Amino acid sequence: MSEAMLTSSPDQIRNLFSIILTTCNPSSPRFLWDKFRESMSEDFLARVHQNNVIYGIQFSSDIFNKVLIVLESKCMSICSKTLSQLGLQSPERNLDITNNADLLREKNYNTAELGKFVEPNKPLLTDDQRKAYDYIMECINKEKGGISFLDAPGGTGKTFLINLLLAEIRSKNKIALAMAFSGIAATLRDCGRTPQSALKLPLNINVEDYTVCNISKASGQAKVLQTCKISVWDECTMAHKKSLEALDRTLRDLRKNDQLLGGSLLLLAGDFRQPLPVIIRHRLMSSMLSLRYPR
Fold it and tell me: For the whole prediction, is pTM greater than 0.70?
């Protein structure tokens, strides 16, 4: 930390401090914070100087609190633990969305532009796509939870339909979580992520008997899952069935609702014609989603 203080930017020092705090188990996190907090706060102080004509402004508790908020967000992304769990005081947080990076990311959309995208593309839906679109929107409007499965061969318009649904929901300033099993597929959706990133699924999920997502109730991602109107999981046929079981248990806990998926709505999409050739025969029936959650 002392060497980094001489050569690194405040943000780089904060990154290093977060890594030390989450992975190295320091004996006195408070001592490290008191010693290096000014070095980690210099850019925040510089912004205050830029926005004020008053000279002589020094470090304050408000500046240090903003740095603690940033540090806690970094620690949450690394190990899903708050600063208080890591031996450091927790920051005072405004409950406003602007202090929550996960919620901000899921609501950082131009609703007017999304509305312009929806209107000309909605008439392009085929009859089957229109039935699926109307059914999902009806479930959202009536706050009806459960699982819906969109099964169709490749090239039949699943991605187009999913993107239209996401745009329709987000244009109303509501949260729709978009996921796809592979990173390439995730990039085809606005703000799309892999389930491993969005849900913090365990790496050894196929060997564990009882699986849950590694998401703390105090984290921003927990608030996203608690408030989202729909979660979309594309290419789910490539995922192990325990991934869905982990999501089910996590949502029941976060939403404090013992219904399936905590009463939330999940749209699964994929093509069961594709994974069959790449799964070892004797493992196929024990890993497919359709056993635990039939279509």
Answer: no
Count structural domains, the chain. Answer: 2
Task: Give, to the nearest 10 degrees, the angle between helix 42-51 and helix 29-40.
Answer: 40
Residue 104 lies in a domain: no
Across 69-215, where does the E strand assignment appear? Answer: 146-151, 176-180
- 72 and 138 assigned to the same domain: no
Give the domain CATH number at 180: 3.40.50.300
**pLDDT at residue 291 tops 50:** no
DSSP string, 72-113: HHHHHHHHS--TGGGTSPPPP---SGGG-HHHHHHH---HHH
| Closest to 59 measured CA to CA, from 42, 77, 73, 72 | 42
Q: Is residue 131 located within the same domain as residue 250?
A: yes
What does pLDDT average to over the chain?
A: 83
Whole-Å CA distances, 12 to 3, 4, 23, 41, 114: 12, 8, 16, 11, 36
* Containing structural domain, residue 7: 1-93
Segment 94-106, tens digit of pLDDT: 544 444 667 767 8
CA distance 37 to 13: 10
71 assigned to some structural domain: yes
